[in-house]
Amino acid sequence: MNEDDIYRTSTQFRFWTYTAKALTDLRASSNSLAASRVRDAIKRSREQGSKSETSTNNAVPEVDCLTVEEEQKLVGWYCTKAMEFCDFSEFPKAVKATAVQFLKRFYLSTSPMTYHPKQMMLSAIYLATKVENFYIGIAEFAKMIPKTTADDILAPEFLLTQGLRFTFDVRHPYRSLEGGIMELHEMSRGSYIPPHGSSFTTEDVRVGILKVKSHRGKPATMTPDECAERIKRAHNKAGDILTKGALLTDAYFLYTPSQIWMSALLAADKPLAEFYLHIILSGTPNGSVSEPSSLELRLLSLLEQCAGLMTRSSSRGPDETETMELKRIDKKLYHCRNPEKIDLVGMNKAVKEGSNGDKVDEEKVVKKRKIERDRAAKEEQDLFGAPLKK
Amino acid sequence: MAISPNNLEPQNARETKAPAAAKLKSLPVRRNQVDSAGKIETGADLTEHLNLEIKNKYEKDRKLGEGTYATVFLGHLKKDPKSEVAIKKIKVMQEYKDGISVSAIREIKFLQELSHPNIIAMHDVYSSKNQNLCLVLEFLPLGDLEMLIRDSEGIRYGTADIKAWMAMLGRGVWWCHENFVLHRDIKPNNLLIAANGEIKLADFGLARSFADPYNRMTWNVITRWYRPPELLYRARHYGGAVDVWSVGCVFAELILRVPYLAGTSDVDQLDKICQAIGSPTEQNWPGVSELQDYVKSESIRPLQKKESFLGLFGTVGEGGVDLLMSTLILDPRRRVTAKQFLQHRWWTSEPRPTKTENLPRKGGVSAREKVGEDLKRRGGELDNDKGADKVARKLDFGNRSKQAV
């Protein structure tokens, strides 16, 4: 049993790894399901509202629902918000990364039209603190966020865990990046032991790494110090990609953690990454020759794809036109939210109280719900101030 | 590294969700119905549907045990009335104001990931209407290892049996460590016995993944009798060696049929360790004096020689004693790893381990009920009637200055 086999037993692989097509299909079907629910729910609330009036039951415009692309932009925006919050609060990067993946996983099967990402975001961060051994009492956590009560954070927690299909383990590429960087340093220091079956010696590797071409393909001869410096730069740059682009794109859904960190290294310093890959694969059949093996070539092309994905502009923060676009989407969402799912605190309370509420006057309940809902909808508007202004 | 050719093409990834989504899409959207209570029933989400589907697979039969943390039911698969599962319903809402409790999250997190014949299997998780989490666990009807150890009248076992049990325990722990998980509560009553005689490591409420270097962890884990000296000295950085020590204590207990190092307090526990194994010093454990709670005792007891261990544990043979001693090395860096434990020569020497189906067992009603008792506890908790506060429960929660958990 090798590490690949072990990885394949993880829930990240079993539940949360997709082909690009499966991912697109899943998002499309979640979107259309949510849209039809929204239309029904809005129709229902209109019908209820118009009962008292003389019904002019026609010419109600069809609700304009969010598209998959719009949903994704919106979720992406709240992912960046979650990251900013985690950075601001000085949470460990594992908490940040897990929180973001929780949001991304949750919104594969749920639409922002059903549950607004703003409501889910804090809950995802809080759950991530519990999962990643950075547990904080809810009262203290709530204090860190203006105009937010413990209930606001906890009410969606249950929906979130359900949406995550009760899988909490997220495998990040951070530790393996550190391991790879250590190996690179060993290579340059002449203390690296090549894999079993490799025809390279420690000395071959040491000499080889000092001659790795520069970014621009120029031949180079580095001193060990210069090489260490170069590894350090690549380390920083790759680390940066892993805490930004890797989180915000679909990289986690499409690639394994090892593929992700190696792609980050490839994006940071391509010749160095290629050299590293060549050495660690030198123990495989046909690996120990000067020309890359076919396995190596296949891997490289896959890593290139992943690197491309993580460094595309969409993985950075939104620019001005994108901010305008987000504002438009947010406005649009205001009109196509599922009205029955807005008041999460109220819904949660109702579930907790269970069926004891039977005897309470029906109308009272309905009315109370409505008031709570309106209040929630209103507060919603300024929970985080005006979020889309920059 | 997960980069082998088998993982090269993401196209190979299972398209688990897509078919489910397609199927669910075709389900009729439920119309709203204002029921008698005036609540509006709304169409369920995709995930709510999935949850319901899982929930409907099982039927609860009767209650096996109830505690403050969880209630355990015996249940079965609707499809197969003869099947048996344990359904552990965690009381989420009751005592806990911080949402889903950390022990529940840990237990679910790790059982979802760890699939091994010597680790209790979690078939499913679902939520009940009242937002309680229900864990569908494999039902282990033959009680736990503690029952077998204590019943010295009724149950007789020998070296070959101990070897079989220890090998299974070793493999379970090795698998945890291989997956970067520390169990942190290994003890006989967390080792449950399956219908076929296999040992299963249970209760992951105190488990956590290995910490990154420099990250602090709590020392307050593992039930005291099974707690290694580094944790008694309040080490904040540790690894798989803590579980290996517990494995050694279970090993010794299997041979002696009473707990090996049964301290009545943390201080007494260290005292027992010094007497049985020797006093930790800078010579036998470099760096020990820097641990937070290390006190140099006035009377240093020398490390016990192999002869004294042979006297106590000789029934398992010289090889067995050698293995036992290697799990109870004071210096955690020199203690065997779970992997080395499994590579020891004792396993391949005579006698061969007993075949699983021939292992001594305790059947009947009492064993079935004991499982209910074991499962309803949470990590570090002991059965109420056992008195004495050996609880390693109180983690440093809620105090941000001590975020090490």
What does this structure look like?
The complex is a heterodimer of chains A (390) and B (405). With 390 residues, chain A is mainly α. Chain A has helices at residues 3-7, 11-14, 20-50, 68-88, 93-109, 117-131, 138-143, 150-154, 157-163, 174-189, 202-210, 224-243, 245-248, 251-254, 257-268, 270-280, 294-311, 320-335, 344-353, 362-382. The longest helix of chain A has 31 residues, at 20-50. Residues 355-362 and 381-390 of chain A have low confidence and may be disordered. Chain B is α+β, with helices and mostly antiparallel strands and 405 residues long. Chain B is built from 12 helices and 11 strands. In chain B, a hairpin with a 5-residue loop joins strand 9 (191-193) and strand 10 (199-201). The radius of gyration of chain B is 23 Å and the shape is globular. Mean pLDDT of chain B is 83; it is low at 1-42 and 382-403. The interface between A and B is large, with 86 and 71 residues. Chain A: This is RNA polymerase II holoenzyme cyclin-like subunit. Chain A: One of its GO terms (biological process) is regulation of transcription by RNA polymerase II.
